[in-house]
């Protein structure tokens, strides 16, 4: 399993102020199972989707050439002007995925 994904799962959980035990009620996964998945696991796609839902998040494939833009956006490293904010509200994926949003 990609360590980066496991780190992102843990980071998201802590950002939400959740402990591993809290994930049991949010996912139906026991604390012991969740702890193992977060630290060294290799969960199935279905399990990742359950965990993502429990973290109020979604799984998404991002083209390799756009990953750096998404990370910058998520880390607030991209400065957004007022005009850009309006565009982001109406077309949030413009230019990130190679063109206009469908």
UniProtKB/TrEMBL annotation:
Gene3D superfamilies listed in its UniProt record: lambda repressor-like DNA-binding domains
One Pfam assignment: HTH_3
All copies of domain HTH cro/C1-type, residue ranges: 9-69
CDD domains: HTH_XRE
GO molecular function, one term: DNA binding
Highest taxon of source: Bacteria
Keywords: Plasmid
Protein's name according to its UniProt entry: Helix-turn-helix transcriptional regulator
Lineage: Bacteria, Pseudomonadati, Pseudomonadota, Gammaproteobacteria, Moraxellales
């Amino acid at each position: 399993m990609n360590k980066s994904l496991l780190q992102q799962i843990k980071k998201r959980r802590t950002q939400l102020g959740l402990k591993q035990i809290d994930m049991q009620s949010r996912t139906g996964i026991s604390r012991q199972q969740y702890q193992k998945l977060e630290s060294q696991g290799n969960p199935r796609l279905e399990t990742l989707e359950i965990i993502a839902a429990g973290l109020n998040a979604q799984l998404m494939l991002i083209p390799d050439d756009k990953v750096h833009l998404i990370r910058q956006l998520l880390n607030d490293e991209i400065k957004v002007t007022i005009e850009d904010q309006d565009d982001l509200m109406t077309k949030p994926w413009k230019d990130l995925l190679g063109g206009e949003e469908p």
